[in-house]
Write a structure and sequence with these properties.
Length: 85
């Protein structure tokens, strides 16, 4: 099965778009599509950066919690047992 769209199909689609929107509105339409694609790409990059920074913060938080748990699990002995009990 080859490509779903060949050159003849793309030319027909372009002709239909030209008839629907008119030649005068095509540059504005192309500009709008380009701006939308740029905004979408920027948002995707921002989401990816947030995921990376969130994962890094979570990893640092987990290592800090485990270090705190380890250090408080075994309190240091004072050398003499508590005689009040």
């Amino acid at each position: 099965m080859g490509n779903a769209f060949g050159w003849p199909h793309l030319l027909i689609i372009l002709a239909v778009i030209l008839l629907l929107f008119g030649a005068a509105k095509l540059p504005a339409l192309a500009k709008s599509v380009g701006q939308s694609a740029r905004v979408f790409k920027g948002e995707m990059k921002a989401m990816k950066d947030d995921d990376v920074s969130s994962t890094t913060v979570d990893n640092q938080s987990n290592s800090t919690e485990s270090a705190t748990t380890i250090s408080t699990a075994n309190p240091p002995s004072s050398g003499s047992p508590d005689k009040s009990a």
